[in-house]
Design goal:
heterodimer, A: mainly beta, six-stranded mixed β-sheet, five-stranded antiparallel β-sheet, B: mainly beta, seven-stranded mixed β-sheet, four-stranded antiparallel β-sheet, globular
């Protein structure tokens, strides 16, 4: 099935560092979402974006909806060990609201 | 309940058997989705229900897969004649009517041996 291109595939950083990851698509989306998934759990919604160019924050997380509607990025500032997990972007907003997910970014944070 | 609930959390079955996976959405959510997640991949869409009807089943891989939501709440994903390639985590999500913000359950890990 279709998956969005997400980069980097993995990141290994020190606690306190800032992190940036992005997602690109060949298709236009009306909505971009970012999820975090821990092992053995379902994805948890972090941020939702609804308008091209929109910049939204949720605590230490900031995400932007690209102006072309074909991309989005997620920044995490001052990372902490509990930020460890797999981050997925997802595009949606079509007639059935189904989501197309990215390939995921694995984040490891060393204390 | 407070979140999306899926049962069982793990299911091991023999090739060729029939399985049913259950999803209890968040109370009041009219939209329900099933996704499948293979190891190292993002979730892939299977089917979307709006109320009792399947509004989009374009992600179901073949006719061995079927899902129902008879009363517009609980949904069951049914897989006939299971194959080893069906092994994956099956995720259920629900949302308010018209909202893209889907909330996921913890998933059912299906292993076909």
């Amino acid at each position: 099935g279709q998956q969005l291109n997400q980069s980097p595939q993995s990141m290994f950083i020190q606690e306190g560092e800032d992190v940036s990851m992005n997602c690109t698509s060949s298709s236009i989306f009306n909505t971009w979402l970012w999820y975090k998934q821990d092992p053995g759990e379902g994805p948890v919604l972090l941020i939702a974006l609804y308008k091209a160019g929109e910049l939204t924050s949720n605590g230490r997380l900031t995400a932007q909806f690209g102006i072309t509607r074909k991309d989005s990025f997620l920044n995490i500032s001052a990372s902490i060990p509990s930020d460890v997990g797999i981050y997925f972007c997802a595009g949606g907003g079509g007639a059935t609201n189904k989501l197309i997910f990215g390939t995921g970014t694995l984040l490891a944070v060393q204390p | 309940g407070a979140g999306v609930s899926q049962t069982p959390s793990n299911k091991v079955t023999e090739k060729g058997k029939y399985v049913e996976l259950r999803c209890d959405p968040i109370s009041g959510h009219t939209a329900l989705y099933w996704y499948r997640q293979s190891l190292g991949q993002g979730p892939e869409f299977l089917i979307y229900f709006q109320g009792t009807g399947a509004a989009d089943d374009s992600g179901l891989p073949n006719d061995r897969f079927f899902a129902v939501r008879p009363e517009g709440s609980v949904s069951t994903l049914k897989i006939q004649r299971t194959e080893r390639g069906d092994s994956a985590v099956y995720l259920c999500a629900s949302s308010w009517d018209g909202s893209t913000e889907a909330f996921f359950g913890q998933g059912t890990r299906l292993t076909v041996v």
